[in-house]
Design a protein that fits this description.
By secondary structure, this protein is mostly helical. Helices cover about 70% and strands about 5% of the residues. It is globular, with a radius of gyration of 19 Å.
């Protein structure tokens, strides 16, 4: 029981640290009088990343498991590239599916200087978003739980934590699908972390999914609007289009993520046997 409370306490403390860091960042943004979405993403990402690093190095660095960033260069590159490819493929299929079923209308595409600048800034911001969220959810929370209770509880509860982290996003409770889809995506990322024993595949997947979803295909990203090359408008039922939340609010994405999850689970079950009590440092 004491050990369980210690784990819960560390997870809650990581949230407190994240909120404090984000509040400090927000105050700084207000001081310089900016509401730029990329600046806000930067503050959010650094807050999440800072919480993960502080918790790990203050409490768990010597416990025999790692955050999942220490990989051989060749494996890091191959896993990151695989993740990038999977993210590009799945968000492209999602966009095509929603469009084919009449859930969106393509209004225009543009590459003016202002758009290119905004997209370039978002490119860097989404890299930090992927690093930050993966370091906290799959790196720290999943690693912490696995070290105590094994891989399967770690996969489940880190994915639930990932979904609940998004409760502050606009329109996330507009339908059941945003939370369901984020939870399913979290499960896929968590299985990828476990399968590869590192964060690089989920980081690559997370980045390319977000970047193409928002900056290329024109969806809101988890309810947040950003600069985009393609301008689209949702049509018909919110359950199909995703509405103001973006592609992650669509039932099309739910179906696709269930298919990807089934494939990930099948691959995970065929993995080589590893010590379930901890992540091996590499």
């Amino acid at each position: 029981m004491k050990e369980r409370f210690a784990v819960i306490g560390k997870i809650l403390l990581s949230l407190v640290i994240m909120i404090v860091l984000a509040s400090i960042g927000t105050i700084l943004l207000q001081a310089i009088d900016t509401e730029d979405s990329n600046a806000q993403m930067l503050v959010s990402s650094l807050s999440v990343m800072g919480a993960a690093l502080l918790m790990f190095y203050l409490f768990d660095r010597k416990k025999g498991w790692s955050l999942g960033l220490n990989r051989k260069r060749t494996r890091t590159a191959s896993n990151a590239l695989l993740g990038l490819g999977l993210g590009i493929l799945t968000i492209s299929i999602s966009f095509a599916g929603i469009w084919l079923f009449g859930g969106l209308e393509i209004e225009s595409a543009h590459l003016d200087a202002d758009t290119v600048t905004g997209v370039a800034l978002s490119f860097g911001a989404f890299i930090l978003v992927a690093f930050g969220e993966e370091m906290l959810c799959r790196g720290y929370v999943q690693g912490l739980i696995k070290n105590r209770y094994g891989a399967n509880p770690a996969i489940l509860f880190s994915s639930l934590f990932f979904a609940l982290m998004h409760l502050a996003n606009p329109d996330i409770l507009s339908t059941p699908f945003p939370l369901i889809n984020i939870f399913l995506i979290g499960l896929i990322f968590a299985i990828a972390r476990e399968k590869t024993n590192g964060l690089w595949l989920p980081i690559g997947f997370h980045f390319s999914w977000n970047f193409l979803q928002g900056n290329v295909y024109g969806f809101a990203v988890s309810g947040e609007d950003i600069k985009t090359i393609m301008t689209i408008s949702p049509h018909g039922s919110t359950y199909l289009s995703g509405g103001d939340f973006g592609a992650e609010g669509s039932a099309v994405v739910t179906v696709l993520m269930l298919i990807v999850l089934a494939a990930a689970l099948r691959s995970y079950k065929r993995r080589e046997s590893i010590d379930p009590s901890k992540y091996v440092k590499a």
